[in-house]
Amino acid sequence: MRLAGLQKLTLLDFPGQIACTVFTPGCNLRCPFCHNPDLVLPALLSEEDLLPEEIFFDFLQKRKGKLTGVAVTGGEPTLQPDLPQFLSRIREMGFGVKLDTNGFRPQILKEIVNAGLVDYVAMDVKNCPGKYALTTGRPEKRSGELWDTVLESIFFLMEGHVAYEFRTTVVGGLHTTEDIRQLAQLLRGADQWYLQQYHPADDVVGDFLPNAGLGGAMGGHLPASEPGPEPGRTSGLYEPSFQMMNEMRSAASAYVPSVRTRGI
Ligand code: SF4
């Protein structure tokens, strides 16, 4: 298992658990707002910086009785071929497991959940179907094709095999209230859905893409209808206002009563 880092304690990442968070390298998406370019972009990943698996398990052994869970995040953890064995080993040590995923490998997600290897799944739902290619930095793909893949994971989780949450990082320049309303109609009946406020960072994935940022993802042209406050280094992305977040939550709650905001 390739591991890129370890946060030794978190009270936030895994609901109800005192956990550590382990990061896996590599991702199949290029969300321009992503805060982890060093995990996502192969050119920024150094093999020397990887954490040997046995060091992680030694750490876990020493934390028995102190930590109760492990949150596995990325990058995109389902890209790791030996993820099931890794999760199984964590479970055998008596820890709960939370998996973060972008939902783009539904078969792996199903295998892991059906094998009882996770207690909680947090899945990103990036945007309404028509904006999937833009929001995931995959302009070469059709949004409908991307959405169909994600929808398989959404439907699976909504069948209730495991505790889960959906989460959407709301980015000024990428999301409108109408997008969130449309998405809410599709997530009707979801257990939990979090709208997370985007906060600009020094380095985001979009800064490293050709024709950096949202402008690049859109072929260099931002729509004239997206004014936004002063954009950061990544052209066109900005922090949505408190008012915008609340307006979106209110629009979404007509369809998903459990929707909540995070980070505002
Ligand atoms: S935010 Fe997007 S690019 Fe970043 S790790 Fe998640 S899915 Fe990958």
Poorly predicted regions are 215-232
Number of helices: 9
Cross-sheet strand order for the largest sheet: 1-2-3-4-5-6-7-8
Q: How many domains in all?
A: 1
Global shape:
globular
- Specify the CATH architecture: Alpha-Beta Barrel
Total beta-strand segments: 8
CATH topology: TIM Barrel
Rg over CA atoms: 18 Å
End-to-end Cα distance, whole Å, is 35 Å
Mean pLDDT: 91
- Distinct compounds present: iron/sulfur cluster
Strand-and-helix sequence, N→C?
EEHHEHEHEHHEHEHHE
Major β-sheet, in short?
A: 8 strands, mixed
Percent helix, as a range, is: 25-40%
CATH class category label: Alpha Beta
* Structural class determined from secondary elements: alpha/beta
Topology:
Elements: E1 5-10, E2 19-23, H1 37-40, H2 53-62, E3 69-73, H3 83-92, E4 96-101, H4 106-114, E5 120-124, H5 132-135, H6 143-158, E6 163-170, H7 177-186, E7 193-197, H8 213-217, H9 242-253, E8 259-262
Parallel strand pairs: 2-3, 3-4, 4-5, 5-6, 6-7, 7-8
Antiparallel strand pairs: 1-2
Iron/sulfur cluster is lined by residues 27, 29-31, 34, 36, 40, 74-76, 102, 124, 205.
Properties at a glance:
alpha/beta, TIM Barrel, eight-stranded mixed beta sheet, 8 strands, binds iron/sulfur cluster
Q: What's a concise summary of this model?
A:
By secondary structure, this protein is α/β, with parallel strands linked by helices. It contains 9 helices and 8 strands.
Could you please describe the fold and organization of this structure?
The protein has 264 residues and is of the alpha/beta class. It has a single domain (5-262), classed as Aldolase class I (TIM Barrel). The chain is 30% helix and 17% strand. It contains 9 helices and 8 strands. The protein has helices at residues 37-40, 53-62, 83-92, 106-114, 132-135, 143-158, 177-186, 213-217, 242-253, and strands spanning 5-10, 19-23, 69-73, 96-101, 120-124, 163-170, 193-197, 259-262. It has an 8-stranded mixed beta sheet, with helices on one face. Strand 6 (163-170), helix 7 and strand 7 form a beta-alpha-beta unit. Helix 4 (106-114) runs parallel beside helix 6 (143-158) and helix 7 packs parallel to helix 9. The relative contact order is 0.13. Residues 215-232 have low confidence and may be disordered. Iron/sulfur cluster is lined by residues 27, 29-31, 34, 36, 40, 74-76, 102, 124, 205.
